[in-house]
Amino acid sequence: xxxxxxxxxxxxxxxxxxxxxxxxxxxxxxxxxxxxxxxxxxxxxxxxxxxxxxxxxxxxxxxxxxxxxxxxxxxxxxxxxxxxxxxxxxxxxxxxxxxxxxxxxxxxxxxxxxxxxxxxxxxxxxxxxxxxxxxxxxxxxxxxxxxxxxxxxxxxxxxxxxxxxxxxxxxxxxxxxxxxxxxxxxxxxxxxxxxxxxxxxxxxxxxxxxxxxxxxxxxxxxxxxxxxxxxxxxxxxxxxxxxxxxxxxxxxxxxxxxxxxxxxxxxxxxxxxxxxxxxxxxxxxxxxxxxxxxxxxxxxxxxxxxxxxxxxxxxxxxxxxxxxxxxxxxxxxxxxxxxxxxxxxxxxxxxxxxxxxxxxxxxxxxxxxxxxxxxxxxxxxxxxxxxxxxxxxxxxxxxxxxxxxxxxxxxxxxxxxxxxxxxxxxxxxxxxxxxxxxxxxxxxxxxxxxxxxxxxxxxxxxxxxxxxxxxxxxxxxxxxxxxxxxxxxxxxxxxxxxxxxxxxxxxxxxxxxxxxxxxxxxxxxxxxxxx
Length: 531
Known about the structure:
mainly alpha; 2 domains; two-stranded antiparallel ribbon; transmembrane helix; two-stranded antiparallel sheet; 63% helix; Growth Hormone, Chain: A
């Protein structure tokens, strides 16, 4: 049976070349007889060379774009650069379809963080339904949900890099809906750890990190503002979900509310279909893969390599990332304290306060977060403001405001304190990718962002149970003092980064210097055509 042929597109030959001419993949002269297909491409094949050099059964890995023409001579190239490559940024035009990506990421943040911020209402209901269970145990349900979806950051980013944002986000939506739907049939709190916390967290993890990463891939000059707009969905969701969840809890119970959450999680499929994978750097193919008539190796090695890249510990060799990750761990211990325990604190502390009014605390906190994300996102894009400096000042102020919660003498004062807290805590999440990009470079963003999410997830898992334990051992005020101190300490630790020398980071990927003109309208490199 004749082998499949490789049809090549013609490119201008470089000035110098030491490559051997390529021949057809046919194994016999009879198979090389002209036919109508070869006649159509004959004028291309005559002047085309294939850049595969094989000596002693060891072949070069070559960029896909080179298969269409010639591999540049190793002696060519500009000084200071690798011989066969030059730096050219692979990024779509600023804005454009990127604003559609921002809208899709907004919907993802709206649902994911909206559900997470409404767990405070579930905490009150679960304590009434299962009075024998301590608060520290019940809080594990919500902490696992948030912690797992943050810990999924490296894996989710690796999967998105391999299979595309669309497939990963859509799959996460289906997994999260399955977890919430399974919780409808659960009658034990400890089983909810698995269905609501772990399964729901895995699904949300496949949604959250890839959606933010996709926004970063479409913006450069206004990346902080774009990410700020996207994560504004977290604040809007935090405003809407606690009120709606409380209404559903009163009418249908917590079991019926799980059906509501399952339906809401499925809406992320809509956002997933809008996530178009941006331009990728050049790929490499082996001779074995080309001979098999395929354009990529089989999926297991691809996935394996992506996971290795995303979970690599090399980023920890950078002292800037090491300090920032430590600050993120300390701050994330206190991050879930308001959303989990502030409504319950208001419900217990102030007399004649119903659950709907207590839910208004989180509405105020998240509503102020909208303005905080937009304002601080705009300032972070300004050349006179450093994103890390904004981050440190804001989380320090947030720590002070959170420590003042126990001394609020009325519900009105508590609302005012919550509004300011929500405003200043907003940059903690919205500026994370911007800080990592400005300090480490875009090429290290996927690994650094994924590892930071992993660290924050681990801290989020232990934070709420620790808060509940402190409240049981001492009083309901002590955990808020502890959380406020954690934010203040995190700001001090992050400020150490300013004492380190700032490295110049590259934001580009290597592409073929001989084929600069072979970019499409969207800037994507030409690839081989296999038939």
